[in-house]
Design goal:
Distance between the termini: 117 Å
Radius of gyration: 39 Å
CATH architecture of the largest domain: Sandwich
Number of strands: 56
Helix content: under 10%
Strand content: over 45%
CATH class of the largest domain: Mainly Beta
Keywords: Signal
Number of domains: 5
Shape: rod-shaped
């Protein structure tokens, strides 16, 4: 291939002094800056090679670079005196064309870059190529005097332009000038499994390199190509129809199917146009070079930006809980959106799904909370995404795919429900492309849904339910619920059901609303697994509140008919979300035992200490009465709401044979409730023959369950 002259205006005359100076410095490049080669014209004027990028075109390779002239001399330097060409290891030379129009005069003490593009043999490697700087000389004819050459491979090591594509627009639109060019770089990459296929989503950052606004022409197309020549169609789903203003970056999001999640880094994103039946590639970008191509971890933050690249909020996966059983696993992930900037921002419309890195599974997550529309400076909004997944997926392969819904103006919609996937968007070609949603719900009825974060859940808290995790009464149970609720088992005791003669276990749960919004009481179902493997289904108390107020706690009881149960027996208590067959969690604990001989009666949420008690006999006649005076210390262990009809104290006068002579009850709420201090109860209309000095009082807690009233002894008074 013959050598051709690089573009640029020529001076008509050169001085002999200059020619001699150039010949003196026609040396190999030496170090000009740390890590860079330099070609010196004089001690104070030299060239360096910058922003080198080598990419594949349709029939050739494209080498883009910039030659920077450093003028440390006392006078200006005219770059028209110099030129460049590209050579390969076989001795072939390739012309290099200047990109754009700029002044050739570099003033004293200044530096200036001159950008070039050269088409070289397809498949050329950086190690085979050099950029030669030469000076024009004039004597008997025009000649080039080589000053030195740069190693392309060395320059690539320090280049900051290796991941930028430069796409001329004139080939697709003749109305545009030859200088109309757009740069593209990869901002983010996300690999998402949807509808049985892997999809890669790419946020491109487009920059207008010209002086006037442009819109990407309809003829500009994109595709993926791998080393084997396989191509995949790329569809622009957001931002491609926006006007590109000089100096203003614009986000353009594209999407394409790929064979598997690991293959994204083996593909190049090509920008091309159709010349008849032939595809002409203008430039390309290698995938796997974006800032968000890999999954984040729990605790890592990632910013979301608007269409011009300004940060909106910072997203972080704060926590992840996986509750595993033999039938499946519940997953809940907490995500925060924080406004770290200096202005009020809209809360992004977020939805999510869970996927396996091995493919085959994608499950929509739900977040039923209502979120604020805006975040002030320093504020944070919390999202909680829950889903029921099949068993067999390890936490190491489990990922959360978080999506944002963007509206037609490139902003965000402020409604949030469960869901994932991408909806319809307009491509650069002017046609409409579609990526199907992988979820059952949509975060909004309009707008485009694109991923903004992929998080690996390998460090999630894992609860293997099995026979249940060890548990201490009152401790928080981590449940993958989509609300800010605290669940704790506060008591599990055994009662007698006198109607049916069965033993009944009663569990008391404390449910706390940690949010500043009232929530409906969760529809939790419970069962108990005994040591013999038998399962006993729980029944919730008949009357419960509908709404749990903000920052408040509520006690709800569940009863289990367990004919063969005994105090101290170890059981597994399993909690379910509604009618789901897979438990949210399972805890291991023992049925509590009461010491009825001491002076302390434990009736959650109360602890009752008996200070003194007397059973006095009234006037004897055909009937008589007892009056029991007693003084107690009534301590409420926790401030919570409880239904007044669920739990009460019952006092029974019994004779020495165990026959119940008379009964009275005291509630914990209302006008006749048990008091902290002195209390008095009267048992009337006892028959005279029932009197005996050995009569005494048994004290019980009674609980009203859907299967009848049950009671357990807490103490006695003699």
């Amino acid at each position: 291939m013959t050598t051709t002259r690089a573009s640029g205006m020529l001076r008509t005359a050169r001085t002999a002094v200059l020619i001699l100076a150039l010949l003196c410095f026609a040396l190999a490049p030496i170090s000009a800056q740390a890590g860079k080669e330099g070609i010196y014209v004089s001690e104070s004027v030299y060239f360096t090679l910058e922003k080198v990028r080598l990419s594949e075109g349709s029939e050739d390779s494209i080498l883009r670079f910039a030659v920077k002239l450093h003028n440390g001399s006392a006078s200006s330097v005219d770059y028209n005196q110099y030129g460049v060409r590209v050579t390969d290891s076989d001795g072939y030379s390739y012309s290099a064309q200047l990109s754009g129009t700029q002044s050739a005069r570099v003033l004293s003490g200044k530096e200036q870059e001159f950008a070039y593009e050269s088409r070289v043999l397809k498949g050329s490697q950086a190690e085979q190529l050099r950029v030669t700087v030469f000076a024009w000389s004039y004597g008997s004819g025009i000649a080039m005097t080589d000053l030195g050459s740069f190693s392309v491979a060395n320059a690539l090591l320090t280049s900051d332009a290796a991941h930028e594509a430069i796409v001329p627009l004139a080939p697709m639109d003749s109305a545009l000038s030859a200088d109309s060019r757009v740069s593209f770089r990869i901002g983010n990459e996300y690999t998402v499994y949807e509808n049985g296929e892997w999809n890669v989503y790419i946020d491109l950052v487009a920059g207008n390199l010209g002086d006037t606004g442009v819109t990407l022409p309809a003829g500009l197309k994109m595709r993926l190509e791998n080393a084997g020549g396989q191509t995949m169609t790329v569809t622009a789903i957001d931002g491609a129809d926006k006007s590109l203003l000089p100096g203003k970056p614009q986000r353009v999001t594209v999407q394409a199917q790929i064979p598997d999640s690991e293959s994204a880094e083996g593909w190049a994103l090509q920008f091309y146009y159709m010349n008849g039946e032939k595809a002409t590639v203008l430039d390309s970008l290698d995938l796997g070079t974006g800032g968000a191509s890999s999954a984040t971890a729990i605790g890592d933050s990632r910013p979301t930006t608007d269409s011009q690249g300004q940060e909106i909020v910072s997203l972080k996966v704060e926590s992840a809980i996986v509750s595993q059983s033999g039938d499946g696993q519940w997953v809940r992930v907490g995500v925060t959106a924080s406004n770290n900037g200096g202005r009020v921002v809209a809360v992004p419309s977020l939805s999510a799904s869970y996927q396996s890195t091995n493919g085959g599974v994608t499950v929509a997550a739900t977040d039923s909370d209502t979120h604020a529309a805006y975040l002030s400076q320093g504020e944070t909004e919390v999202f909680s995404f829950s889903a029921l997944l099949p068993k067999g997926i390890s936490v190491e392969e489990l990922q959360l795919a978080l999506f944002e819904t963007r509206n037609a103006n490139g902003g965000t919609n402020n409604a949030t429900t469960g869901g994932s996937g991408a909806s319809t968007g307009t491509g650069a070609s002017g046609t409409t492309g579609s990526a199907s949603s992988g979820s059952a719900n949509a975060a909004s009825s309009s707008g485009t849904k694109v991923p903004v974060l992929i998080a690996g859940l390998g460090k999630a808290e894992v609860y293997d339910q099995g026979t249940g995790t060890d548990y201490t009464l009152g401790d928080r149970i981590e449940l993958p619920l989509d609300k800010k609720l605290d669940i704790a088992v506060t008591e599990l005791k055994l009662y007698d059901n006198e109607n049916y003669g069965f033993k009944t276990a009663v569990a008391k749960l404390k449910i706390t609303n940690l949010d500043n919004t009232a929530y409906a009481l969760p529809e939790l179902n419970l069962d108990v697994v005994g040591e013999n493997g038998l399962v006993y289904t729980g029944t919730r108390q008949a009357n419960v509140i509908s709404q749990l107020a903000t920052n408040s706690s509520y006690m709800v009881s569940y009863s289990f008919v367990m004919p063969e149960a005994a105090d101290g027996q170890a059981v597994a208590l399993r909690l379910y979300n509604g009618s789901d067959s897979i438990p949210l969690h399972s805890v291991k604990l023992a049925i509590g035992q009461d010491d009825t001989a001491d002076d302390v009666w434990d009736v959650y949420p109360y602890s009752i200490t008996v200070n003194s008690a007397d059973l006095l006999v009234g006037q004897l006649g055909t009937t008589f009465s007892y009056t029991m005076n007693f003084n107690v210390g009534l301590e409420r262990k926790e401030q919570l709401i409880a239904d007044a009809s669920v739990s009460k104290l019952q006092f029974e006068i019994e004779d020495s044979s165990g026959l119940v002579l008379s009964t009275q009850t005291l509630p914990f709420q209302g006008t006749t409730k048990l008091l902290d201090g002195d209390n008095s109860i009267t048992f009337t209309n006892l028959k005279l023959n029932q009197y005996n000095s050995t009569n005494y009082v048994n004290v019980y807690e009674i609980v009203d369950t859907p299967n009848g009233i049950v009671k357990r002894k807490v103490g006695e008074i003699r």
